[in-house]
Amino acid sequence: MLYNHFVYITTNEYRTTLYIGVTNNIQKRLEQHQFDSLNAKKTFAGKYNCIYLVYYEGFESPKDAINREKELKKWRREKKNNLIRSFNPKMETLNHQVI
Questions:
Q1: Nearest C-alpha neighbor of 30 from the set 53, 3, 49
Q2: What region holds the GIY-YIG domain (predicted)?
């Protein structure tokens, strides 16, 4: 099934900082994070170089995606890491899967 909206988690090279976001174009959003990381560093993801996609979920409804993003942001770090590892056990970079 193709989804129109995504909740995603990116991290930095050392997997020490997580960024959770929602988008309707995951490829473009990852490009924006990459650009900001290399240039302006005005956003959280850019400032902390969170350019490595490690988790994503697809949704048909933007409302469902936003609600899931809010839910994940409230979680403790350990729970977020467990979610990521259940989807991506080695926390490998998944950017190539969506581009």
A1: 53
A2: 3-82
Which fold would CATH assign to domain 5-98? Answer: GIY-YIG endonuclease (3.40.1440)
Domain parsing of the chain, residue ranges: 5-98
Please state whether the predicted TM-score (pTM) of the whole model is above 0.85: yes
DSSP string computed for 58-99: EES-HHHHHHHHHHHHHS-HHHHHHHHHHH-TT----HHHH-
Neighbouring CB atoms inside 10 A of 80's CB total 16
**H or E segment and range at residue 4:** none
* Residue in the block written with tokens 């581009």: 99
